[in-house]
Inverse folding.
């Protein structure tokens, strides 16, 4: 008899999701089966849940979604040598071919044949998940699962911040969603100068302050580019980290960038973006497109920051839910009334307790 489990499924190509019984995934020779202990909602998951234009052209349905997780290995394939039953793990979500030119030249994060965990293959909003053993990231057993599941988005922030020089530079972080908030903390930890955080939600701006931002800009109340110039002695931001995907915010980011600035783009645009190309050209702006994490350099950088104690993610996890409360969880994310929302897969109680586990400590509120 086929074993089943609970999974949060994007069943139809329309807004919403359904929690239902699905088959426990089978483990291939080069794969591992992980019992998921904690998973977290990403902005990408919100795109999938809302079913926007990006989701329509990208996401495979029906499919268990979710890609940020931590858990314990329960089974390994016959060819797996680097992972053992009982290991505490997370995983890189890009499943790459290893044969194309990007893969063979150190750029596998942009593999031409990429499959994406929780987007084009089954993900982690379920009791179990199967991942390639080569994609496994080992976690210390003293790291709480609620923190370990944040490493995937932390990697996005680390790659965005460190895709160019950051030390002593003025930085504008546009969009104080979760990866934006992480980017503020990473920038400060890596020696950035003044960090300006922009968003339209007061809650998120307050979170940005807690994560270390020096200046807060409500871009619904004032012109973003003008505010950036005001807080950089009229020079503009030397580094612009665009996390929102809002077309107008993207344009304002380029407008507020300094001459010879670096603009790193991570936010998924919600529509066509009309840019002033002459401004980009004559300012000498360098534009970086950011996707995922560099495999696996970014993971080691993120782990070094966490384990070295220089990166404080303690204010981020504000709510925890079980999967059966997914509608409440996504409503919070969509409304911008939360920090990081984490699903706890083996408890039915809402957690609001302070966790202390070695050097890792944070508060859910």
């Amino acid at each position: 008899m086929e074993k089943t489990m609970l999974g949060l499924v994007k069943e139809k190509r329309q807004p919403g999701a359904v929690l239902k019984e699905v088959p426990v995934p089978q483990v291939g020779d080069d794969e591992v089966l992980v019992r998921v202990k904690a998973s977290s909602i990403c902005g990408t998951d919100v795109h999938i849940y809302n079913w926007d234009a990006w989701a329509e052209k990208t996401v495979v349905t029906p499919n268990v979604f979710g890609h940020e997780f931590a858990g314990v290995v329960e089974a390994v394939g016959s060819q797996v040598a680097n992972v053992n039953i009982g290991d505490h793990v997370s995983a890189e979500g890009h499943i790459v071919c290893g044969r194309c030119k990007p893969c063979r030249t150190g750029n596998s994060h942009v593999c031409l044949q990429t499959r994406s965990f929780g987007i084009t293959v089954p993900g982690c909003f379920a009791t179990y998940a199967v991942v390639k053993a080569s994609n496994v990231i080992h976690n210390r057993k003293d790291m709480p699962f609620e923190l370990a599941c944040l490493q995937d988005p932390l990697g996005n922030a680390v790659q965005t911040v460190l895709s160019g020089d950051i030390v002593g530079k003025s930085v504008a972080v546009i969009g104080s969603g979760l990866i934006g908030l992480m980017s503020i903390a990473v920038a400060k930890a890596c020696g950035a100068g003044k960090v300006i955080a922009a968003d339209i939600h007061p809650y998120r701006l307050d979170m940005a302050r807690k994560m270390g931002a020096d200046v807060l800009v409500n871009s619904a109340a004032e012109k973003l580019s003008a505010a950036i110039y005001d807080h950089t002695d009229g020079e503009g931001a030397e580094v612009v980290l665009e996390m929102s995907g809002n077309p107008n915010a993207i344009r304002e980011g380029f407008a507020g960038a300094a001459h010879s600035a670096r603009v790193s783009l991570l936010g998924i645009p919600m529509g066509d973006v009309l840019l002033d190309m002459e401004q980009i050209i004559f300012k000498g702006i360098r534009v970086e497109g950011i996707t995922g994490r560099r495999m696996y350099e970014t993971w080691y950088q993120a782990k070094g920051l966490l384990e070295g104690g220089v990166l404080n993610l303690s204010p981020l996890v504000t709510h925890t839910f079980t999967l059966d409360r997914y509608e409440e969880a996504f409503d919070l994310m969509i409304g911008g009334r939360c920090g990081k929302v984490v699903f706890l897969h083996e408890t039915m109680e809402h957690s609001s307790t302070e966790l202390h586990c070695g050097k890792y400590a944070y508060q859910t509120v």
